[in-house]
Please model this.
Amino acid sequence: MSPLDAARPGPQLSTDSERNETQMNPTAQAAPETAVSPDPAARSRIEPIYVLDGITKSYRMQGRTLTPLTGVDISIMPGEFATIQGPTGGGKSTLLQLLGALDRPSSGVLRLDGIDLAAARDGVLTRMRAARIGFVFQSFNLIPTLTASENVNVALEGRGMTASTRTERVAEALAKVGLADRGGHRPSELSGGQQQRVAIARAIVAGPKVLLADEPTGNLDESMRDEILELLEGLNREGLTIVAVTHDSAVAKRAHRRLRLDGGRLHEVRR
Ligand SMILES: Nc1ncnc2c1ncn2[C@@H]1O[C@H](COP(=O)(O)OP(=O)(O)OP(=O)(O)O)[C@@H](O)[C@H]1O
Ligand SMILES: [Mg+2]
Model:
């Protein structure tokens, strides 16, 4: 799946229907600990948003098996801002794809809001992505022929909203990222920092719980990097959980929690 597909969610479903579909899947049903509390509000107050237990990921390429993730164990609480650093080729983007329900682990348990993504059916993954996850990428991944507003609007497709509700939501999201007056601009008519703001607006317009960012400031100079960081910090203060992969220690230092992926495992970086 391309990053643009990731940004283009499917129809939104309630937690109940996701749960029902998960329960219809015998593999998912086999794990009793995937059962979720009947009160979603109470659950999210006290329970991690992500639980990863013994996650591995292997790729088979030309007769060779490559295993970038050899055993990742981590819990992420709602409202955290976590960064992941590590050597190039170390599996950071791979891990983010698993967190984003874009791919499944080879083994282990990966729960998002109590639902095991490793065992869930494709339809459940699609709906988990649409309802809970926003993505931001290093290269913005905006559609060059669409305006900023139209790019953000893409993330609301297939959600059964009226055109006027969508227009309102898009305007709100662009205002939130400080681009209320740039809705009519195409990506080529925006600075790099502004393009990343549009991408962030697209990622948050549907109201996700988690923002997954892969090198969100990697293509930006220092002042634009700081602007984007401040924007992410503001969204985090409003309650959005953020997991960001970064090579930039200045970014990692601003997060609540620093993680390092090395040798296929994730470690806490002590300050
Ligand atoms: N779809 C795939 N098929 C086969 N191998 C893959 C696939 N995706 C990633 N890999 C391999 O898995 C390893 C980890 O890749 P990944 O992109 O997760 O690293 P990364 O930590 O994000 O690196 P960088 O910092 O350079 O972005 C690499 O060796 C890569 O070649
Ligand atoms: Mg990467």
Q: What stands out?
A: The beta strands are 50-61, 64-76, 81-85, 107-112, 115-116, 133-137, 210-214, 241-245, 257-262, 265-268. The pocket of magnesium ion (ligand 2) is lined by residues 92-93, 214 (CB under 6 Å).
